[in-house]
């Protein structure tokens, strides 16, 4: 019986590792409130396989701003940044309706700058866990959006847990 279970485990493991992951679509929503600027502000997002998307020039007469972009699959490289923040604004970034950033951003001038560099004390700054999260490398002036995904679904909690779960249930021989 043990050789049969071991063979079944090996075939399942190779199938999981070699089969392509399912790429789901993602949407990013930017909400800007209380915009205060003497000039204009602009925020940009760049999915790896699409063109850069932008808020356009938001002036003091803009009022509140909200826009949702379809950014394609979650497997690519997705970056976002302030292209220009000359003033202050309350900003919220949602990914698939989950808040990953929320805070009061203040900066004066043009040039690419990460949102976290304009916000000393964000109310939300998601950098891990399940679902989408943010990665800010010190050498980059943009924020990368990453998605935590399991290769085998939520049942086992990830491929690294598969052998542990099977060993714990005595379905695999102990090493």
Structure description:
It is a single chain. The protein is of the alpha+beta class and 175 residues long. The chain has one domain (25-148). 15% of the residues lie in helices and 42% in strands. It contains two helices and eleven strands; from the N terminus they run H-E-E-E-E-E-E-E-E-E-E-E-H. It has helices spanning 2-18, 159-168, and strands at 25-37, 42-47, 53-54, 65-73, 78-84, 87-95, 98-107, 110-113, 124-125, 131-135, 143-148. Strands 2, 3, 5, 8, 10 and 11 form a six-stranded antiparallel beta sheet that branches. The protein has a five-stranded antiparallel beta sheet with strand order 4-1-6-7-9, with no helix packed on it. Strand 10 and strand 11 (143-148) form a beta hairpin. The longest helix is centred in the first third of the chain and has 17 residues, at 2-18. The radius of gyration is 21 Å and the shape is elongated. The chain starts with a helix and ends in a 7-residue tail after the last helix. The relative contact order is 0.17.
